[in-house]
Amino acid sequence: RSLGVDPTNSGASTSCTKTMGNKVSRGNGEYPIYGDNAIMKKKAHGTCDHPVQQDLRWGADTKTANRICCHNRHFAERSGYWESTTLKKELAEGKEVTFYDSVSGKPLFIAPRGRTADAFIQESRAHGWPSFRDEEVVWDNVRCLGNGEAVSLVGTHLGHNLPDKNGNRYCINVVSVAGKPTEPQNM
Fold first, then answer.
1. Which has the least CB within 10 A, 34, 74, 134, 178?
2. What CA–CA distance (Å, rounded) separates 85 from 14?
3. Taking CA 183 as the corner, what is the angle to CA 85 and CA 153, rounded to the nearest 5 degrees?
């Protein structure tokens, strides 16, 4: 999995979002929404304020999650790891699944949206990691950095945007989105 994405050669739309200090401009409303590198500045626990939640969903490994989410900017869980969790079983129920930040418990993705659960599973299986599209991202809590890195606004490393012929594809570590909600959710 290539994690060093050159934003000038990504195939992304030319009407991209731009950052100005801490303010984010959505341009023409297209995605991804870019954030400032300061999101990932050093904090008390790597790039996060504290470690990941204990007892993550789908049996995701907490030690791996802590390393990937808070102490990493370039590496990923092993390809196909998500299939060793119970996520597929939840997706097979055919309902939308909300994916929460493993550090903060904030919602980051809701899938499948605009496609079937089978289509989501097939695309994720083909690429080795859960693969989300623009309409499945909770943009209130997610940003992309200029190098393609996808992050939560609390500093959790999520994965990378690896655009393909169908548009933006957010290739995300399941350990980064296996959290439990910490606040009541109205979705």
1. 74
2. 37
3. 75
Contact 35, 25 (CB under 8 A): no
Pairing between strand 131-132 and 170-172? antiparallel
In angstroms, the CA 185 to CA 51 distance is: 22
Provide the 3-class DSSP secondary structure of residue 84: helix
How far does the chain reach from its first CA to its final CA, in angstroms? 32
Q: What is the pTM of this model?
A: 0.83
Give the Cα separation of 129 and 12 in Å (integer).
20
**Nearest-CA neighbor of 159 among 136, 176, 135, 140?**
176
**Across 144-159, average pLDDT:** 96
Question: Is the Cβ–Cβ distance between 27 and 17 less than 8 Å?
Answer: yes
Within the chain, where are the H helices? 62-70, 87-91, 117-127
* Residue type present at position 187: M
Residue-wise pLDDT tens digits, 26-83: 334 489 999 999 999 999 999 999 999 999 999 999 999 999 999 988 889 999 999 9
